[in-house]
Amino acid sequence: MVPEIVSNEELPSASILSGLQLNISGIIGPALGGLLLVFVGASTVFALNALCLLAVLISIASWKPKVSKLPLESYFESGRFLSISKCFVDSGDAAIGA
């Protein structure tokens, strides 16, 4: 997802920031959840968690990836390339001894 959002020049920095965000959220999230649990109760924390999950699901559903081909199309296209390419030699016959 990150390569579709930023340019190729910004990709290394964006990748580092993405990893940093993941690590920081793994520390702050449980701490914030524990504080909320003490002050507002378990049912409110679960409701907030459900709302956050719903927001993530909506944003993922509305995201349109920039995919030019389906993964299987690329797979079959590479197979066609290998079948017509002369740079690969069939080693199956050599293993049999023919």
What does this entry look like structurally?
- The protein is mainly α.
- The chain has one domain.
- Helices cover 76% and strands 0% of the residues.
- It is elongated.
- It starts with a helix and ends with a helix.
- The mean pLDDT is 79.
List keywords for this structure.
98 residues
- Biggest beta sheet summary: none
The radius of gyration over CA amounts to 24 Å
Helical percent range?
over 70%
Oligomerization category of the chains in this entry: single chain
Shape: elongated
Structural class determined from secondary elements: mainly alpha
Number of DSSP strand runs: 0
Mean pLDDT: 79
Q: How large is the share of residues in beta strands?
A: under 5%
| Unreliable residue runs | none
Total number of distinct structural domains:
1
**Head-to-tail CA distance between termini:** 49 Å
Task: Describe the structure concisely for a colleague.
The chain is mainly alpha-helical and 98 residues long. The chain has 5 helices and no strands.
List the helices and strands and how they pair.
Elements: H1 2-5, H2 11-40, H3 42-62, H4 71-84, H5 92-96
Helix pairs in contact: 2-3
